[in-house]
């Protein structure tokens, strides 16, 4: 049986320009955020973990003049209404930042609402860590094509 560390064995793209790419991970518990962060960090993404406690985190858009490219990853522990509020807030603060959501399988209405609100992609629980890295890489390639081409080694 392969344990949680199975994500160490799949081929992934490694980003050499970590300064210009950051994944913001938001969920309701540190273990949930940390599991997602380990797979993404191992693959070369710079990650910033946030535990949602009723206040939106500062995505730091004004501190670097928009040079850092960002992706927001919303964990499955967040309520769908909170996810929708995050998407709206994200589009106000950093309009070009893509959002990826992790949802429970079978939540068709929630998925449709999130897609209508502007998320770029979603994953259903249970999350396969290699799929998480692949989907985030795909979103990065679609939204930031020139940075992706320059940063993949």
Describe the structure.
It is a single chain. The protein is α/β, with parallel strands linked by helices. The chain contains five helices and five strands, in the order E-H-E-E-H-E-H-E-H-H. It has helices at residues 30-42, 80-93, 108-117, 129-143, 145-151; strands spanning 21-27, 46-51, 69-74, 99-103, 121-124. Strands 2-1-3-4-5 form a five-stranded parallel beta sheet, with helices on both faces. Helix 4 packs across helix 5. The protein starts with 20 loop residues before the first strand and ends with a helix.
- Give Rg in angstroms: 15 Å
The unreliable regions are 1-19
Share of β-strand residues: 15-25%
How would a crystallographer describe the biggest sheet?
A: 5 strands, parallel
Going across the biggest sheet, name each strand in turn: 2-1-3-4-5
Shape: globular
- Give the averaged pLDDT, no decimals: 81
Got a strand count? 5
Structural class designation: alpha/beta
**End-to-end C-alpha gap:** 32 Å
SSE layout:
Elements: E1 21-27, H1 30-42, E2 46-51, E3 69-74, H2 80-93, E4 99-103, H3 108-117, E5 121-124, H4 129-143, H5 145-151
Parallel strand pairs: 1-2, 1-3, 3-4, 4-5
Helix pairs in contact: 2-3, 4-5
